[in-house]
Every structure is written in C-alpha cells, then in structure tokens.
Amino acid sequence: MTTTKPNHIGRKIARIRELRGMKQEALAHELGISQQSVSHMEQSESLEDSKLEEVAKVLGVTKEGIENFSEEAIFNIISNTYHNTSNDNSSLIASSLNYQPTFNTVEKIVELYERLVQAEKDKVSYLEELLKKK
User: Fold this and answer.
1) What average pLDDT does the segment 109-121 reach?
2) I want to staple 10 with a disulfide (CB 3.0 to 4.6 A). Which of 42, 49, 75, 122 is the partner?
3) Do 24 and 38 form a contact (C-beta atoms < 8 A)?
4) What are the HTH cro/C1-type domain coordinates in residue numbering (predicted)?
C-alpha cells in the first residue's frame, strides 16, 4: 500500500472539480489554458498562490478551501449526519430530526445561495466579454 501526501494540491483541485461536476476542459476554458495544462496542474503536488487563487475562483471556493479540503472530512460530515442502521428509513428520519448543527443553517443556505448567484453573475459577465471580442 502506498501512502499519499495529504497536501497534494493537484489532487484536491481535481476532487473539488469532480464534486462540482466540472470537466477538465471546462476548467481549462475558464482559466484560459489547455486541458493538458489542467491535467498537469492536477498532478502537481503544489501550485503558486496566484494560480491557486485563480483556480479557486473558477471552482467557486476559496484558496484556503482548496488547501484545507479533505475527502475524509466530507465522509465524516455525511456519516455524522445520516446513520441508517435498519432496513427501513425510521432511523434515518430520527437522526435527521435530531441533527443539531453548531451553525445557523439558514445563514449557511443564504451564504451558499449568494455565492451561487455571484458565480452565475461572474459567468454571465465573462460570456458577455467573450461575445464583445468577437
């Protein structure tokens, strides 16, 4: 068994891109680079801060979000949120009803919605600029 370094930035970028449902080609287009360059970047253990900032913006996360991304944390969130030990959904419903987050869920939803709206506005302005150039 080989162990992988936990701070492999390229793998984190690739995983976040996959979770966002984005292909390498789309990320490449947004960054103005080739798909091969994205592939090379995702194989790189580190990335210069300015490039990481650029990638983070396209992926709709912060630079720190990429640096601190952990697949394990995602699995922990999922497993701590839903515990279904029986064949019916009663325990799933019970655990969902007893779930008490340590943050204000409404604020989080609003924050995520605002980030989504901003990302869409950024895409629209980017596409408008592309059309002006033609």
Assistant:
1) 86
2) 42
3) yes
4) 13-66
